[in-house]
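[job 4471] stage=fold_predict status=RUNNING
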Amino acid sequence: MKLLLINIILFTNIFAIEYGQLFFQGNCITCHNIHEKKSAPSISEIRENYIRAFPKEEDFVNYLATWVLKPSKKMSIMQHSIDEFELMPELAYDEYTLKEIAKYIYKTDFSKLPQ
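[job 4471] inference complete, writing structure tokens
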């Protein structure tokens, strides 16, 4: 009975986290800290810039995912960050995964998370 209860709790917690959040926390946070600039702009800054440029979720998600799939200085809306940190390298993520991460970023108000 205890084993069953433990499994239920574990599976409930695993599935409570959405796919985009899981990938963000496992990968993106390495360079994109929530509030501080380290080796790249903070995710809070990125979200603010993209929300301003693309207020509709679909536009936000499509542009961000497309840009991360194949980063381009010409297509960047954050030229100042490229000047400061250089162009983000191409990563080996598929478009679906990048869109899930972008949806998570769009929906998460990082300014409300602790510093």
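[job 4471] summary: The chain has one domain: 19-112.
[job 4471] exit 0
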